[in-house]
Amino acid sequence: MKSEEDQSHVDLRNGILYGTLKQIRIGDDTDPEVPKLLPVWVCSIRPKDSKLLISLLKQNCEDDASIKHLKRLTKIGDYIKAIICPFESEHERTEISNTLGNLQYENLEVINVPRNQANTKETTLKWSTIWPLTWKGNPNHQFLNSVIFDIEQERQMVNELLNRLEKVNNRQASVTMMAKEVNGTITIQCVAVNTGECYPSNHSVMRAIDSIAQRESKQRKQGITERGYLCTDMIVYTTHEPCVMCSMALVHSRILRCTYLKPVSPGGGMESSYFLGDLDGLNWKFQIWRWLGESELSKLDNLIDNARAEY
């Protein structure tokens, strides 16, 4: 387990943890010249009312993660302009007015502010001309420094994946395990195998999702459970990078993270092509990791052929 003080296992430059897990994500840390924008509700108040406004917001508005990179208040002339909350619809105006109560405010309106935290201090200053941002360092570096893995448990899961592949005894096979963390222990929920079939619905990832769906259907009939999404909180371990269809299925199933051993170019849907799982504009994102452990990759190479373009 990672110590909060010891960051020696983190390679920020290459996005690698413990020398074994490589983060897969879109592009580099270069910021666009013009940021994507987020509509928010703002109002203007007198400086003397700043503390009262902050108190009202703490009492009545959720601490929304989407605006944490923005400074809540900024001085404009003789007034303070304050972000109240992200904008969803014009119908919120009455509710916001009630939230502000007897506070003396003016110009309750919607403006656009930078949607994301900048990756560099220089870009933070540039985007702050639209609305002041806070600079707390590269957001992905913060993530890598904070993410926690029990690396020995991860290694056990990868070796279990390879053991299942070995038992199949087919050099065209791929294996996917769905797992879930319960009280700090990762437990396998299902195992699916593709013994070489090229039809996409026979890929091991699709078979694993189908297995979870079949179990969910049975439990619903028994009145045991009612999951909103099939694979919420599920951890996926798979021998090969999922293809584009499998990657999108994982997005729609809303998994927690995916770890695979072998990239599959050009058929893979993560690092090999579209970075599905880390792509803006889709309805979900999840962590993507590629396993770098030499002994495990060597065992995989001994168990499979390398000719297939997708799994």
UniProtKB/TrEMBL annotation:
Q: Where is the CMP/dCMP-type deaminase domain?
A: 166-271
Which cellular component, as a GO term, is one annotated location? nucleus
Task: Tell me what this protein is called.
Answer: TAD3
Q: Does the keyword rRNA-binding apply?
A: no
Q: What residue ranges are annotated as transmembrane?
A: none
Molecular function terms from GO: tRNA-specific adenosine-34 deaminase activity
Q: Which Gene3D superfamilies match?
A: Cytidine Deaminase, domain 2 (3.40.140.10)
Database matches in PANTHER family: CYTOSINE DEAMINASE FAMILY MEMBER (PTHR11079), INACTIVE TRNA-SPECIFIC ADENOSINE DEAMINASE-LIKE PROTEIN 3-RELATED (PTHR11079:SF156)
Fetch the InterPro entries from UniProt. CMP_dCMP_dom, Cytidine_deaminase-like
Protein source organism:
Candida theae
Q: Which family does it belong to?
A: Belongs to the cytidine and deoxycytidylate deaminase family. ADAT3 subfamily.
Query: What is one Gene Ontology biological process annotated in the Swiss-Prot or TrEMBL record?
Result: tRNA processing
What UniProt keywords apply to this chain's record, in alphabetical order? Answer: tRNA processing
